[in-house]
Design goal:
mainly beta; Beta-clip-like; 3-stranded antiparallel β-sheet; 1 helix; 6% helix; globular
Length: 139
């Protein structure tokens, strides 16, 4: 699947690859929708148990369905965590949408506060923000 409009994927100072703005995103505007393979909670549990990658790219839609951005994603699955993010995720009628918390200029890495993930609470944060809490999960 091609990249979402206005996004670029390249090496990140936070972690591995990151998702960067290739165009201006004004505060309050949609950046992109999270895409990927739609999977049920049993498949999520299986993938967490048998995962081969150290980074999970699974986001919950509701209590039953999730999206695995590593399969059929559009680049948004490379949006890294930050304790001082410039974007947030919103679930709108079963669609996960990234929205700009502030103006985001071309070349800036797009980041969100993951708050809760399938990773253990011990998974360290590398955002280097002044208010970094040290973990990607808010515990």
């Amino acid at each position: 699947m091609p990249l979402a409009f206005g996004l670029a994927v390249r090496p990140s100072l936070i972690n591995g690859k990151g998702c960067f703005a290739a165009t201006f995103f004004p505060r309050g505007r949609k950046i992109a929708e999270y895409t990927g393979e739609r999977i049920a909670r049993r498949e999520v549990a299986r993938r967490v148990r048998t995962r081969r990658q150290r980074i999970l790219r699974i986001c919950a839609l509701d209590a039953y369905w999730s999206l695995d951005g590593a399969r059929g994603g559009n680049g948004t699955h490379y949006i890294n965590h930050s304790c001082q993010p410039n974007a947030y995720m919103r679930n709108t009628r079963g669609h996960l949408v990234f929205m700009a918390l502030r103006d985001i200029h071309p070349g800036e890495e797009i980041t969100v506060d993951y708050i809760a993930t399938l990773h253990p609470n011990s998974k360290r944060c590398h955002c280097k923000a002044p208010n970094c809490r040290g973990t990607i999960n808010k515990i």
